[in-house]
Write a structure and sequence with these properties.
single chain, alpha+beta, three-stranded antiparallel sheet, 8 helices, 7 strands, about 40% helix, CHK kinase-like domain-containing protein
Length: about 230
C-alpha cells in the first residue's frame, strides 16, 4: 500500500509544473534561434501549486492527436520521438554547461530517492513480489537466480545513481531526462497515412523528469517495439 499523506512529500507536481513553465519554453526558444520549429509540449493555459492543485493544457484530441496505447510503434514514430528527445537533451545540456542556467540542476528529486521506503512497501517489497510471480511461472523460473543476485543491492544502487549528480558526480552527459519516456505516453497526429507530429505528453509525463546522465532515457526507450 502507498500512504497517501506521504505522497504529498514527493514533489512530483512541482517538478511537472517547473518543466512545463521554466524549462521547455526556454528549450523551444533556443531551438527557434536555430530555425527549428519543433514543438515539445502543448499550450499551457493555467496551473496552480495551491490546493486544489491543477494544470490545464490545450486539448490535443481536438487538434487531431491520438494515443498509441497497446499497438506497436511505426519506425517513423520512433524516429520522431527520439529526435524530439535528442533535441531536449542537447539544448538542456547547452543551458547548464554553456549558458550557466542552473535551473535544471534543481530537478533532482524523483520518487525513489525522495521517499522513505518504509512508507512505501510496494517499492521495498517489489523484488519479493516479482520473485513470487516468477516462481509460479515455469517458463520464467530460469530468471529467478538473476533477480536474486541483485536483490540486496538493487534499490540502494538505484538511489545512488539518482543522487549522483546532486552529490557532485558529473560523469557522463548531463541533461534533462524525461522521467516517463514510454510508448503509452505518446500522442501522434497524422495527415492521411503520413505522420505529421508527435508529443510525449499523455498522463503525468514530466512529473518524474530529472537532471542526470542521458543514458536513462536511452535505456527506457530500448523496450519499444516496432511493427
Amino acid at each position: 500500500m502507498v500512504k497517501k499523506d506521504k505522497m504529498n512529500e514527493v514533489p512530483l507536481f512541482e517538478t511537472e509544473v517547473g518543466v512545463y513553465t521554466k524549462v521547455l519554453p526556454k528549450i523551444e526558444a533556443k531551438l527557434r534561434e536555430f530555425g527549428d520549429q519543433t514543438i515539445l509540449a502543448p499550450k499551457l493555459f493555467h496551473y496552480s501549486l495551491q490546493a486544489p492543485r491543477c494544470i490545464v493544457f490545450e486539448d490535443l484530441v481536438v487538434e487531431g492527436y491520438t494515443t498509441i496505447n497497446n499497438r506497436h510503434c511505426s519506425l517513423e514514430e520512433v524516429k520522431m520521438a527520439l529526435t524530439k528527445l535528442a533535441k531536449m537533451h542537447a539544448i538542456s545540456y547547452q543551458m547548464i554547461h554553456r549558458d550557466n542556467n542552473h535551473d535544471l540542476a534543481n530537478f533532482n528529486k524523483t520518487f525513489v530517492n525522495t521517499i522513505d521506503l518504509a512508507d512505501f512497501p510496494v517499492l521495498g517489497n517489489g523484488i519479493k513480489l516479482i520473485k513470487d510471480v516468477i516462481s509460479d511461472q515455469s517458463d520464467l523460473q530460469k530468471f529467478l537466480p538473476h533477480i536474486e543476485s541483485v536483490e540486496r543491492f538493487l534499490i540502494p544502487k538505484v538511489i545512488d545513481l539518482l543522487n549522483a549528480t546532486k552529490n557532485g558526480n558529473q560523469s557522463g552527459v548531463q541533461v534533462l531526462n524525461h522521467g516517463d519516456f514510454h510508448v503509452k505516453n505518446l500522442m501522434v497526429k497524422n495527415d492521411g497515412n503520413k505522420l505529421k507530429d508527435l508529443m510525449v505528453v499523455r498522463s503525468d509525463t514530466h512529473k518524474l523528469s530529472f537532471h542526470n546522465q542521458s543514458i536513462h532515457n536511452i535505456i527506457s526507450s530500448h523496450s519499444w517495439t516496432i511493427k
